[in-house]
Amino acid sequence: MSNTETTDKTALAQVLEILKTERAKALSLREWKHRLAGYGFAIKHTDGGDVVTALPHGREICALPASI
Questions:
Q1: How far is CA 26 from the centre of its chain?
Q2: Torsion 47-50-51-56 (CA) sign
Q3: Structure pTM?
Q4: What pLDDT score does 5 carry?
Q5: Using CA atoms, how far apart are residues 16 and 45, in angstroms rounded to an integer?
Q6: Three-state DSSP state, 41
Q7: 56 preceded by cis ω (within 30°)?
Q8: Over the stretch 59-68, which tens digit does the pLDDT of each residue have?
Q9: Do the Cβ atoms of 53 and 41 come closer than 8 Å?
Q10: Where are the beta strands (DSSP E) in 1-68?
């Protein structure tokens, strides 16, 4: 495994942890999305399911896990 792959997996794990933590704190879906925007993330609805994107350009990061 290369150093880049390790870094990517670590970064993805950190992003997913932020999503879980903020979802637990938020009282509604709308508040959760607002909180995520403060971290520079957004949720985009696609035909294949929801995707986590980076703001402001909408670069896709990963699919939103069903557990969140």
A1: 15
A2: positive
A3: 0.83
A4: 61
A5: 17
A6: strand
A7: yes
A8: 999 999 988 8
A9: yes
A10: 41-46, 49-54, 59-63
pLDDT score for 36: 97
Q: Residue 58, by phi and psi: left (phi above 0), alpha (psi -120 to 50) or beta?
A: left
End-to-end CA distance of the chain: 28
Task: Give the integer Cα–Cα distance in Å for 33 and 9.
Answer: 23
- Alpha carbon of residue 65 to chain centroid: 9
Tokens describing residue 19: 């999503």
Structure tokens at 67: 């557990």
- Determine the Cα–Cα distance for residues 41 and 55; give it in Å rounded to an integer: 5
